[in-house]
Amino acid sequence: MPKKRKANYSGLQPTKGWVARNYTFFRHRIIPQIFRKPLGIPKKPNLQPPERGSVRTTWIGHASFYIEFHDYSLLIDPVWGTWLGFVRRQQMPGLCLESLPTVDLVLISHAHVDHLHRHTLRQVNSHHGIIVANGSGDLVKGLGFSEIQEVKAWEEREVEGMKITHTPSHHWGARYGTDTHRDYGGYLIEYDGITVYHAGDSAYFDGFSEIKEKCGTAIDVAILPIGAYDAPSGRNVHMSPEEALDAFNDLGAKIMIPMHHDTFPLGNEATGEAKERLANQAEKLSIQEKVKILETGDHFTWKL
Questions:
Q1: 175 within domain boundaries
Q2: What is the DSSP track for 104-141?
Q3: Domains contained in the chain, number
Q4: Which stretches in the chain have pLDDT values below 70?
C-alpha cells in the first residue's frame, strides 16, 4: 500500500534528476512519435440511448468521455486535437465529433490543454453550457456556450435534475505556469439513481476516502487515470496503475474504467505498460471482473 499524501497541490518545482528524465522523454517518447500517424478509425456514436436505470460510458481517448443516461448526456474533458504543442496523438479519437449529437452538458476538470482543448470546445454543442473548475471560466468565454459555471471543490450544481459535485484531487491547475489561481479536480455525477465519478488528473492521496465519505451514496462507475506516472519532471502529479486500484478501493466503487493512457505520450513509461500493469495487479487482487479496460471508441454500460 503506497503512503497516502495529505496535500493536494503538486507544486511546480521539478525534482532531482529532471534533466536526465527530460532527455529520455524527448529522445525516446517525443521525437519518435512526431513521425508516427495516429492509429485507429473514429466510430459513429450510438444514437440509441441506453435503457432507463443505466449509464453508457464511452472512452474517446485520454481523459475524454461521452456519458449517456436514458435522457441526458455529457462530455467530460473533450479533446479531439491531433497535436498538443509538440505532443502528437497516438490513437485517433474513438468517436467522430461531427457525428456527435448535441449534448446536455460539458464538464472540464482543469485548465491543462490535454483536458481543456479550446479548438474542440468551439465545435461542441451543449444545451446547458459548460461547467469548469474555479478560475478557468475566462478560458472558455467566446467558445459558443450559452452558460459558463465555475465551481470550487465540493460545490454542487443541479442541472435538469442531475447533481454535479466538483471534487478535490492532488494535482495542479496552471495552464501557462504563472496562473496558479486556477482550480483542479474531478466530478461526481448523480442521476437516475446512478453515480459516476471522473477523477480528472490526480496523484494518489487520502482525498479518495473523503470523496467516498462525502458522496453519501455508493459510486457505481469510477473513471481513474493510470498513465503518465513516470513524469519527466519527477513531480507527484499522476497515479501509477497500482495506485489507481488503491484509489478504486478507497472510493468503494463497483466498477473501474481506466483513462489517461496510450493517447498522448506524457510520461516515460512505454506504450501499453499502464494497461498491462493494471490488468496484472487487478488479477493479483482478484478484482479483474470489476476493471473494464476499454479501447478507444468502446463503451461500458452499467445497469442498476
A1: yes
A2: SEEEE--SSTTT--HHHHHT--BTT-EEEETT-HHHHT
A3: 1
A4: 1-12, 234
Read off the CATH number of the domain in which 244 is found. 3.60.15.10
Look at residue 231 in the predicted model and tell me its pLDDT.
80
Tell me whether residue 304 is in a domain.
Answer: no
State the number of CA atoms in the 13 A half-sphere of 271 facing the CB: 14
Q: In what order do the strands lie in the sheet with 186-191?
A: 156-159, 162-167, 186-191, 194-198, 221-225, 255-259
Longest Cα–Cα distance of the chain, Å, equals 53
Domain range enclosing 143: 20-38+55-292
Position 2 scores a pLDDT of 44
Q: Is 188 helix (H, G, I), strand (E, B) or coil?
A: strand
**pLDDT of amino acid 125:** 95
The answer to whether 79 touches 114, Cβ cutoff 8 Å, is yes
pLDDT at 28: 75
Q: How would you classify the pairing of strands 221-225 and 162-167?
A: unpaired
Closest CA to 67 of 36, 85, 45: 45
Q: Is residue 44 part of a domain?
A: no
Whether residue 43 is contained in a domain is answered as no
Digit-coded pLDDT (tens) for 47-89: 999 999 999 999 999 999 999 999 999 999 999 999 999 899 9
User: Rounded CA gap, 107 and 114, in Å?
Assistant: 14
Residue 43's DSSP bridge partners are 95
- Residues across the chain: 304
- pLDDT attached to residue 19: 82
Residues 6+ positions from 1 with CB-CB distance below 8 Å: 246
Predicted pLDDT of residue 12: 67
Q: What is the pLDDT of residue 30?
A: 82
